[in-house]
Structures are given as C-alpha cells and as structure tokens.
Design brief:
TIM Barrel, 8-stranded parallel β-barrel
Length: 381
C-alpha cells in the first residue's frame, strides 16, 4: 500500500474519520462537483476560462475536496482539474470514478494521466453493472498498490453497498440527496452511520432546479445532449409540485437574506450523517454563492421550515378502493405500490421496502410517476 495511504477521506488537514474505530459525527464539508466544468451535459458549454476560474475560485474560498469522473466531458473535467489543482496537490483531495463497463486499472491509469498526479485520494465505482464485485476487488488491489488512498461506491442499492463492505474496505458512499429527493434517508444513511462510511451527497441542487429561475416559467426544454432533458422532475406534475414548493422556499431564502441555492445547500449540510456536499459550479460567482451556505448555516428552525414546505407539497397518497380492486390484475411491482398507498407511507419508504426484497430495485421517482398515472385516472386521493 502506498506510504501515507488512508482508509479515511478528506483533505490531509481534515480527517473525516476511519473504520472500524468509533468516530464522532463529522462537520459536513462543501466539496466541488466537477461534472459541469467538463463542458458538456449542461447545455451550451461556458468558456473554458470561466470554468478554470470556477476551480481557482473554489481553492481561494477554501474548498479542498474535488470530485470528478472520466465521463464528465469525456475526460475534460479531469484534465481541467488536473491543470488547476496540480500546484495544490498536497492540500487537496481528488476523487474520481470507474464506470460499470470499464477495466478499473486501465480507467484509473488514464484518469491519473489527465489529473496530472500519480495517485488519487479516492476512486469510486460509478455505477453497478454485471461484474461490479470483481471491480470492487480490483479497486482494492489498486489501493494496495498506491494508485488511490481510498475506495468508494456510488449509486448502489443499500444491499449492494452492504455486500461491497464484505468484499473490500469501502470508505465512502456517494448518492443523490436534496430537499426533494430523499431515498438515501431510508436505508443508505443509516447503513453509512452504522458502518462508519462517509456519505457524499451529490445533486444537492436537483440538477439546477434549486438554483432558481424556474418558478415563473412553464416546464423547461433542454437541447440534445443536456442530461436534464430526460429528468422526470423537469416535466409534468412533478415539475408543478416542485415549482410550488420552490415559490415558498424562495420566500424563506429572501427572509434569510440568502439565495435559493444557498438555502438548498444549507439544508443538505445540516442533515445528520452527511460528510461532504458536492456542489457544481461553472463560474466563480456560483462558487461564491455555494460557499455562502457554509458561511451562513441554517438553524434548526430553518431546517424545520424547509421540511414543512416540502411535506405540504408531497403528502402521502392513498389508493382508492377501485385502484385496489384493479391492481389484482397488474404486475407485482404495481400491486405492491398500490398496497402501500395507505395515506401514511412516503414514496421513499415504499421504494425502499420493495428494494429490501433483493429484486429489481425501486426508487421514489418510479413510485411518484406511477402515482401520477393513477391520479390521471382518479385512482389515488
């Protein structure tokens, strides 16, 4: 194993903790999500000088955790970060990923070349494909060889994460988390807490929806190649619900003298069990706005107000007697959802309960979309 290799993650000056020793709850930290600076997937790319300036500004403002992946701009994100971070290598943490169909060794070697470094602090399995267990084993070997200081997992079910922990010393889990999307609260965060795993929250601004600018417009359209084009919350009933909540969240942000984005980031930073919140930025001003969430943390009352606003817009659904009768002839997943729609269970709880079975996993988003289909037929209350 590389001299100095750690089984914890974080900048050298700030250790988040290690396993299996008990550790106090870490103070959440703001990290830099490197997808947008890769120049693709987010509409028309901003000038490279602005994206370089965003990374430079992040360093100036004290951000020390930088997360990227080979797929972000087909390597452009890693190359850009490598150029800017190289002079600061010993005081920053660099995390990258390996794709579900990639050879871990070849992928990481290419990433190291683009990042202009001979090791990363964290390499993560980006998605879980057919051979994910062998990929986790290979990542562990790469850690022992000094190519990475720690290994992590992303976008896994809680069952896969538990299995990964049996295979290798996985130290982090990265999953989506924001005021609207809370699947991880059901199983992942409790598992991470029990096992001493650092939880990295990505998509804290819901792919820009919580950045503002959508509250007074019809459902937006995005150009080809923009990943938001296919996200369900930018269209239909879900967009309308989120926009209704955002209108009230904007009012709360104004009352605090801050932006909607800072309020949304502050909420994730305040959540128990979160170690790092990964916020993307393409300009220096966006970095400044993100950092303001750290400088002006939310109080317990603020968090409660955010939760109340969101809960009012997303009440649990109840299936009608007609829906329960019709469901007898539907598929197993559909029957399961209808059985759970009793007016008390959240979409996140329903999805987690199905995933517990170890079958094809379910997300709250799928439950919400199905419930909207039922609502169109008058089958839910």
């Amino acid at each position: 194993m590389r001299p100095g290799a750690r089984t914890d993650v974080g900048p050298p000056s700030r250790v988040l903790g290690s396993r299996p020793r008990p550790r106090p709850r870490p103070v959440p930290e703001l990290g830099f999500g490197g997808w947008a600076v890769g120049g693709s997937g987010w509409g028309a790319p901003s000038p490279e000088r602005e994206r370089l300036g965003a990374v430079e500004r992040a360093i100036e403002r004290g951000i020390t955790f930088f997360d990227t992946a080979p797929t972000y701009g087909a390597g452009a994100s890693e190359s850009l970060l490598g150029r800017v971070l190289r002079p600061h290598r010993e005081r920053v943490t660099i995390a990258t990923k390996v794709g579900p169909r990639d050879d871990p060794r070849g992928s990481l070697e290419t990433s190291l070349s683009r990042l202009a470094t001979d090791y990363v602090d964290l390499v993560q399995l980006h998605e879980y494909g057919d051979r994910w267990e062998s990929q986790i084993e290979e990542l562990s070997r790469l850690q022992h060889e000094g190519k990475t200081r720690a290994i992590g997992a992303c976008n896994a079910t809680h069952l896969q994460l538990a299995r990964a922990l049996e295979i290798a010393p996985v130290q982090t889990y990265q999953g989506p988390y924001n005021v609207f999307d809370r699947d991880v609260e059901e199983r992942h965060l409790p598992l991470c807490s029990r096992r001493g795993i650092a939880f990295l929250a990505y998509r804290p601004l819901a792919s820009g929806l919580l950045g503002g600018g959508y509250e007074a417009v019809p459902a937006p359209t995005f150009p080809e190649g923009d990943h938001r084009r296919n996200i369900f919350w930018f269209k239909g009933a879900e967009f309308d619900r989120r926009r209704a909540a955002i209108a009230r969240l904007e009012g709360l942000a104004r009352a605090r003298g801050t932006s909607l984005a800072a309020l949304a980031l502050g909420w994730v930073l305040a959540r128990p069990g979160v170690a790092i919140v990964l916020a993307g930025a393409r300009t220096a001003s966006q970095v400044d706005d993100n950092v303001s969430a750290v400088e002006h943390p939310l109080s317990g009352e603020d968090v409660a107000q955010v939760d109340a606003i969101v809960a009012a817009v997303f009440p649990p659904r109840r299936a009608t007697p007609t829906a329960r009768r019709l469901a007898a002839g539907w598929g197993a997943r559909e029957r399961y959802i209808v059985e759970q729609l009793d007016g008390s269970r959240t979409c996140e709880a329903i999805a987690a309960g199905w995933t517990d079975r170890g079958e094809q996993p379910m997300l709250a988003a799928q439950v919400k979309v199905f419930c909207d289909q039922l609502a169109e037929q008058g089958l839910v209350e």
